Amino acid sequence: MEPIRIEHVELTLVRVPLREPLAPYTSRLATIQATESLIVRLEDTSGHVGWGECNANFVQLGPLERLVADVCQGFARRQEINRHTFYEECPLPLRLRSAVEMALWDLAGRRQGQPVAQLLGQVVRQRIEVAACMGICRPEQAEELAAAYAEQGYRVLKIKAGRRVEEDLATVQAIHRGSRGRLQVRVDPNCGYDYQEALRLARGLEPYPVEYLEQPLPEDALAESARLRQQTRVPVALNESVYGPDSVRRILDLKAADVLVVETYQAGGVWPCVLIGRLAQEAGVPCVMHCGHDLGLKTAAMLHVAASSPAFGAAHDTTYYGLQSDIARPKLPIRSGHMELPSGPGLGVEVDPELLKRYALATASGSVGS
After folding, report:
1. How confident is the model at residue 81 (pLDDT cuts 50, 70, 90)?
2. What radius of gyration, in Å, describes the C-alpha atoms of the chain?
3. CA–CA distance, 51 with 102 (Å, rounded to integer)
């Protein structure tokens, strides 16, 4: 296989509205009505194109022209691109690096006529379970939504939390009533509690069907997370603490998590997520793919990672069903809480130029070596 040589780079910042009942989506940190994503388009010297995506909510990415120049300079310094080590070698900011790395995998798959999951090593599952997500809301609304999600065939519901322990417990109780016990619940306080509050919440959750309590403590509180695991029957998951493989080795050494919630823009791309899955599998710790209000490209990347790794057998977070539209067409279907691995080459989804243009906030492009 000839080395990949990138000729042209394009970055587009897009904003796609969310629809009810997902919107407005409230966490303890913010309320959003739309998802903003940075879309990366890479074209190689033979005319093949690859696409990548990273979430842009809650962050300042900087001027796109400067980011394009940085990407082009990075590719100009390389005669040959190894997509397996790109995440380690690339000096770009982590989020942008993850989107560029994703586009390289998509490009490689299109060049070889194979899905990304196959390039990652294997396909262990074609059908991937997903979890619905719910922002912070009133208990009566949570009860109503839980009933609806259970009727749609979802088995797992992730909820935002972290403002007050009593509020979180009331929401879980309402979900249990509304779903008649059919939904496993993931409770995500987004680092919102100190140790005593987290322990009080965990113990209050014990009577309910809670799959795990996700990142109740600050990201650097690994010793406290390990201690919390010993003080409650509720499994503890880590997300904000999970970056590349090195962070996972420390988490596993400290026995700080029952579950790892993995995100491409924190890990640095698709391949480090696969490496994290391998470490977790050796330790007997399951992995879940995180959702940052993803569009079709990043959702497809999640499916390829989940399809290729035995460690990623749980339901994976998604808010994809809550988008009013997508930049990819057709939209990826969700049936009874499950999605199918896209069958086409690369990520297996096609970006619609008209939709990309419709939702674009800003676009910049450049040629490598110019």
Report:
1. confident
2. 20
3. 7
Q: From CA 58, how far away is CA 261, in angstroms rounded? A: 19
Distance CA 120, CA 275 (A): 10
**Rounded to whole angstroms, how far apart are CA atoms 240 and 265?**
11
- Measured CA to CA, the distance from residue 289 to residue 108 in angstroms comes to 22
Asked, as a colleague might, if the bond just before 21 is cis with ω within 30 of 0, I would say: yes
Task: Identify the residue whose tokens are 């990548």.
Answer: 52
The answer to whether residue 281 scores a pLDDT higher than 80 is yes
**Alpha carbons 134 and 157: distance in angstroms, whole number:** 7
Q: What is the pLDDT of residues 97-141, one digit of tens each?
A: 999 999 999 999 999 999 999 999 999 999 999 999 999 999 999
pTM of structure:
0.95
DSSP H helix total and E strand total for the chain: 13, 15
Domains identified in the chain and CATH numbers: 6-114+350-367 (3.30.390.10), 119-340 (3.20.20.120)
CB 261 within 8 A of CB 237: yes
pLDDT tens digit string along 208-264? 999 999 999 999 999 999 999 999 999 999 999 999 999 999 999 999 999 999 999
- Distance between CA atoms of residues 74 and 38, nearest Å: 18
Tokens of 146: 């839980």
Asked if 75 and 14 touch (Cβ cutoff 8 Å), the reply is no
Q: Which helix (H) or strand (E) holds 106?
A: helix 94-112
Which two tokens mark 21? 């009942």
- Distance CA(366)–CA(362), nearest Å, equals 14
Identify the band that residue 3 occupies on the pLDDT scale cut at 50, 70 and 90.
Answer: confident
Mean pLDDT of the chain: 95
The answer to whether 170 and 194 are in contact (CB under 8 A) is no
- Tokens at residue 217, please? 């403590």
Tell me the two tokens of residue 89. Answer: 């070698």
Tokens of 29: 């940190």
